[in-house]
Amino acid sequence: MIMIRKFFCGLVLLSALVLVPGGVNNARAANDPAKVMGPNACAECHKNEAEVWKGTHHFKTFRDLPRSKEAREIAKKMGARRIKAASLCLDCHFTNQVSGGKVKAIAGISCESCHSAGKSWIKVHSGYSGKKKATETPAEAKTRWEKAEAGGMIRPKEMYRLAKNCYSCHVVPREKLINVGGHTAGSAFELVSWSQGEIRHNLWYGDGKTNKPASAKRKRLMFVVGLVVELETSLRAVGKATEKKTYAVKMAGRASRARKRLAGAAKILSNVPELAAAVKAAGAVGLKLNNDAALSAAADKVAAAGKQIAGKYDGSTFAAIDKAIPGPGKYKGKPVR
Ligand code: HEC
Ligand code: HEC
Ligand code: HEC
Ligand code: HEC
Questions:
Q1: Ligand 3 atom nearest 45 alpha carbon
Q2: What are the angstrom distances between the C-alpha of 36 and each of 32, 42, 71, 160, 233?
Q3: Cα 59 from Cα 281, distance rounded (Å)
Q4: Residue nearest to ligand 3 atom 31, measured at CA
Q5: For the chain, first and last CA: distance in Å?
Q6: CB contact at 8 A, 241 and 172
């Protein structure tokens, strides 16, 4: 996938971003091990965020996964010997870095798994355009962030990319891993409840002590964009189904539920026409085997709606959806502080 993306980008530059959505939408491809700096490099400045991360499942999987009997059984069925060396597992369970010409797992799921590999943006995002924080002009700051984004940085404000990235791991769109390896077919992921518990590290902007929950309007946008990305990702996952076994059944169930949930949200938020468009795009497509072309085409349309929503709204007009958003009792894990 990385190779394919580089090939297209090199060949037709940025226009390829529009032409090959399948390639760009694979967020895992954005995590080039040659560009990974590692969580210690981030922790030099982001101490508090690193401390929170160390209390998460994402951190602990580095040590725990290779010791788990279940993991070893999956690996064995897949014909992989060492879990930390099996590319099959590295993608979603570890942060990988090129060292001595080899790809090596250096941590669990870490900063760059979610904010993207840092090499092309780490300096620029923190550099205040070569000035001091107080002397950098707003125009310079704007250019700085644009450069960081062009370097691949996934910023908290980019809701679609942020969500897409979580789902690229949490849906587990790998048929063989599930049918042959017996791996779980993903989890009941939902963006608000899964990001506001143990994951939450809103400590940078503020006093560094209070781990603020996302604001009410931000949670609404998270919830809605999350539903759209859930549908997009599960349609793509069904597209990869070639045999009538666990994978196909689970992913079709997932897509069907996602379709219903999104239709429900579209009804409540009739002031958001993009939601109705996404529901319509996904409504006609058959959730069946060997239907990749049609499912991918529908997923592309759903994705386009998701990007529009993330770019156009801030959630302030979404109050009608509040009742549907999971509350603190549903958050995954305890937030630190
Ligand atoms: C040299 C210090 C330094 C290092 C190293 C550093 N950061 Fe930052 N980071 C900053 C500063 C400074 C800001 C805020 C800039 C501002 O306020 O305009 C920031 C902001 C951020 C933000 C918020 C972006 C936004 O949209 O507001 C994220 C996310 C982030 N950093 C992630 C990382 C990650 C991941 C790494 C490691 C790959 C990293 N940082 C390494 C100093 C650093
Ligand atoms: C496409 C992403 C993806 C790939 C590839 C993947 N996993 Fe997972 N795996 C996940 C996610 C996401 C979870 C957590 C699911 C949840 O929270 O419900 C998970 C959970 C697990 C668990 C149960 C939880 C735990 O940590 O004990 C085991 C065991 C596991 N994976 C082993 C493996 C092994 C071994 C491989 C390689 C052969 C592998 N996985 C490849 C995404 C992936
Ligand atoms: C599981 C994915 C994930 C991981 C791992 C992760 N982040 Fe984040 N990060 C996010 C999300 C999501 C947000 C926005 C959360 C919100 O709005 O509640 C965020 C927000 C931030 C912010 C802005 C915080 C603020 O005060 O508003 C910074 C800075 C940041 N992350 C840096 C880091 C660093 C450094 C690491 C590693 C130590 C890291 N992140 C690990 C997903 C992640
Ligand atoms: C690189 C792949 C990857 C990405 C990206 C990712 N996760 Fe995960 N996540 C996993 C895996 C694998 C596990 C299971 C870890 C374990 O327990 O072994 C997990 C576990 C979790 C858990 C703990 C679940 C539990 O059982 O309590 C939460 C919460 C979570 N992820 C939230 C998020 C959120 C929110 C995002 C995006 C902002 C995200 N993840 C992005 C792979 C990923």
A1: 35
A2: 7, 11, 25, 22, 25
A3: 38
A4: 201
A5: 39
A6: no
